[in-house]
Write the structure tokens for this entry.
Amino acid sequence: MIGDGPLFEDVERMIAEQELGQWVFAHGAQPHDKVLSFMRDGDVFLQHSVVASNGDREGSPVAVMEAAAAAVPVVATRHEGISDSVIDGETGFLVDEHDVETMAERIATLANDPDLRLAMGRQAWERADTAFRTEQANQRILETLKAALEKSHQPSGTSIANSPPST
């Protein structure tokens, strides 16, 4: 596990209590290049995101897209933007929030089937290569902005870029 936060000590305690120390390592916060190295060496990327008790939620975790770009299949929850990055059964598996049994089953499926891991990892990389490239993302943003401007209530022939500054 890589990352830090207010629950880090609880995670370390759970690893010790469940005697998982020979299989689960809590590395804490790591520099980005180290995280990418872990991803490239990994077999499966896990992201079990849930809506917090205060309603807080994350969008599309960048780490999920980075795992795909590293050709690593993802097992994650159907949470916010994750399903935009992971195609269930093709680039990884999606499970419902808090459904740890199904998540464990999906992890076991990938752990026991190296051909499936490789196939999903390859599909994840292909999807990341086509869907998440900066140029393509920028083009989609530009198209969205142009469409928004066309629908705006501005007089014909003006645009935000050409509007005089307000004083």
